[in-house]
Design a protein that fits this description.
Layout: E1 2-6, E2 9-11, E3 17-24, E4 33-38, E5 45-50, E6 57-59, E7 67-72, E8 77-82, E9 91-96, E10 105-109
Parallel strand pairs: 2-10
Antiparallel strand pairs: 1-3, 3-8, 4-5, 4-9, 5-6, 7-8, 9-10
Length: about 110
């Protein structure tokens, strides 16, 4: 199993980023996928989850209405569209299959 995140970077408050997680080594289209984040000195936090079909999505209260999770099963990729970013969104963002993790991508929101 391999999960490779990309798309992180430095963005100003109010800006947007789109993260991608490319999956391989398993039947991606049958797995529920999740995004988590971990800020320095804090515990890892669940952000969003999406069912294998993409029809069911779940969000943490802290990001609901600002972040959107989606997936493309043809490309074995799950996405996280992040809008209206805040400084408190600064963290390393990782995707997860429930048992496997990617290396993460850094998102920094700062003016």
């Amino acid at each position: 199993v391999q999960l490779v995140e990309s798309g992180g970077g430095l963005v100003k408050p109010g800006g947007s980023l789109r993260l991608s997680c490319a999956a391989s080594g398993f039947t991606f289209s049958t797995y529920y996928m999740r995004w988590y984040r971990q800020a320095p000195g804090k515990e890892r936090e669940f952000i969003a989850g999406i069912s294998s079909s993409g029809l069911t999505r779940k969000y943490a209260d802290s990001v609901r209405g600002r972040f959107t999770i989606s997936r493309d099963n043809a490309k074995n990729t799950v996405y996280l569209q992040m809008d209206s970013l805040k400084p408190e969104d600064t963290a390393v963002y990782s995707c997860n299959t429930a048992t496997d993790w990617g290396q993460g991508t850094q998102v920094t929101v700062s003016s």
